[in-house]
User: Fold this.
Amino acid sequence: MAAAGAAGVLLSPGAQVFGAESPNERPVFATIGLRNQGWGITSKSLGLADFVALADVDANVLGTNVERVKERQGKAPDAYKDYRKILDRDDIDAVMIATPDHWHTKIAVEAMLAGKDVYCEKPLTLTIDEGKLIEKMVKKTGRVFQVGTMQRTESSQRFLQAIALIRAGRIGKVKKITCGINGTSGSPEIPVASVPAELDWDFWLGPAPKVDYRALPEMRKGYGGGVPLYSNCHYSFREWHEYAGGKLTDWGAHHVDIACWALGEENNGPSKVSPVSYSLPVEYKDGYPLVHDRYNVATKFRIQVDMPNNVELIITSEGDNGILFEGTDGRFFVNRGKITGAPVEALKDNPLPEDAIEEVYGGKVSSNHTANMIEAMESRKQPISDVWSHNRMLEICHLSNIAMRLGRELNWDPAKREIVGDDQANTFLARENRKGFEINM
Assistant:
């Protein structure tokens, strides 16, 4: 299989072939982090793997999902609050990680060192240097590592078709790409509150700084329901730089990924990231929020990214959610629900070659992200969403956040993977884990 970035690269000869000791020849999985997307990726995978263990620091979430898995597969998985008990088991081939972002790197690295293949939800990292560490550990351990950017497999092939159109020259030379990733809203003042009895708040914080639990009594409805509408935990973690990167590393991790893939720049990066306009919901000084009882990620933004070959990449909170590709000979728009524009309409009379989609994908297209990972576990090659291409794309999203936090454009060296001539900005490429939650290597 030949996917973007490092895909198609054979792993170390000593790497364990999945299922070699599994009597039913199905891989044995465990999931760490079970709210929302954690259950989503687990439920999509139950027909493909045996889930023998689940872990979550919220006892209610853990119990609910143990029962869900039991109902689906006929046998209850073991339940743990501490994910390390999963990593200690030698009967587990792979782990799926769907914790808040600030936990991803620690668990992923420790899982690889424990001999597990890894599926980790996007965005893979909280900082740029975390991505470099994960790349190093994938090479060192020879593990298969799938990042959960499912637009590469599970959006009716619209994004693969978009990339095929670009590669076939249907809009000429690409000049501009606009990624609409929606904005967000700030929050009211969120007071310190009693920690729910079922939640281990200190363990939830983990590598992040120790702070009080905050929540308002109003409950969230719909997707993500069952938790406070405003808090510094659970569903709301994406609104805090301490745990995530807002829309830039949420939707941005999807659409910027497709943009870079279309450009063929999965192993390269920008030269400059400029915050054209943006709104932060609280006051900042030297890149850090001065107010700690409200959401702090950017609510509105327009970021200009100077990509190789004079391509302009715009990341914006305005307009439709999706990607607009503009070239010298035309333009088209694609998102999860549609792909529209004159180059798309022209396919009726001038279709793409029959193998165009598979050419982009690097083989037969999988409709399930976990299935693609299991194929990689069998072949010991990296899957469609590999860590190298993901990190290169995610660097753009991280740099966008750093630029807004500091209020200035950033020049980037994609070879050295560091910010040029700005020592203060370079301090944001890493963050030290809280004492007691260092990565065990």
The radius of gyration is 21 Å. The CA atoms of residues 323 and 426 lie 29 Å apart. The longest strand covers residues 272-279.
